[in-house]
Amino acid sequence: MFGSHLVEKYIGTLWISSIVDSIVGFSKMSDSIDYFDWKDEAKERQRKREMSIAVNLRERVADYVSGEVSEQEFLSKCREEAEKIAETAFGARFLISIGSVIKLETDEYLGFYYVPFISWTGHRANFQRMRRGFRSFITLGRVGLKALIAGKDALITRDEDTEELKVREDLKVGLEESLTAILDLAWAFNVRDITRTVKGACERLFMDAGVTAQERVKRAWALRILAKEFLFVGKAECEGGDPNSNEDFIKNRAKMGAFKTMMKAQGQDLSDEEAEEMMENVDIWQ
Questions:
Q1: Angle between helices 120-155 and 91-114 (to 10 degrees)
Q2: Rounded CA gap, 34 and 59, in Å?
């Protein structure tokens, strides 16, 4: 639904996608599911996800760390990559989310590395990270309440004559009207998920005992360059407003997500292009 194939190496499989996959998998099983077993599997899946992202980040900056490319060449490659991501669905949002987390993590690491304990840069980055986490929590609660109200309005309406509540006759219209609020809620979950996961991946990379401290610092500098380019392109893309916030776009992405989930339950894992082609003659709201 969020079209994250170009940023998958930076965020792995989103938590929402994992939950959908789990639900689809459970629907095919005849045996009951043990909650604690599922919880342990989810923790292990998250650990592997962070490890995989850490490896991808290490490989992404390897040519800069080794000196194979100059800082300017590396910066140009980062800008080019960011521009490609920005062209995809939700690309600007991904760039800002990923870039923000990586920049805070690198600022904190580099700040405390050069001036341990009393580093203003390190403490400021730590404070900004805490503030960002608090704001995302507040945002999640706000959009959650908004989605709840929108969902109620999608299913229930008030009779103009009797003032009594009743189930809407045209659920299709009600669902389409609530898509924006539901999508905002899903993205709020994504932001918290991306923040937690990328933070964990960066910490693993910066604690790598298999390399020297100087190499870890070089990795941090390279990732800071990458983060700044992601933020620059992402914010520039959103200057005239979020390109993914118009109603038609939201409806199309929601329909595609629902369609891909239905097809996956039937054993078909479709790409966005394949799903879009098959959806031309299908109305998933019927």
A1: 150
A2: 38
Strand-pairing partners, residue 158, are 165
Decide if 86 contacts 234 (C-beta within 8 A): yes
- Residue 164: per-residue pLDDT: 53
d(CA 259, CA 281): 12
Residue 59 has pLDDT above 90, yes or no: yes
Q: What is the pLDDT of residue 3?
A: 57
Nearest residue to 230 via CA among 66, 57, 68, 49: 57
pLDDT (mean) for 26-50: 73
Output 242 or 93, whichever has higher pLDDT.
93
98, 11 Cβ separation under 8 angstroms: yes
pLDDT score recorded for residue 200? 94
Encode 263-281: b = buried (16+ Cβ within 10 Å), e = exposed: beeeeeebebeebeeebee
What is the token pair recorded at 44? 């292990």
Helix/strand/coil for 81: helix
Which residues face 142 on adjacent strands? none
Give yes or no for residue 26 having a pLDDT over 80. Answer: no
Residue 141: Cβ within 10 Å count:
11
DSSP for 10-32, written as a single string: HH-S-HHHHHHHHHHHHHT--SP
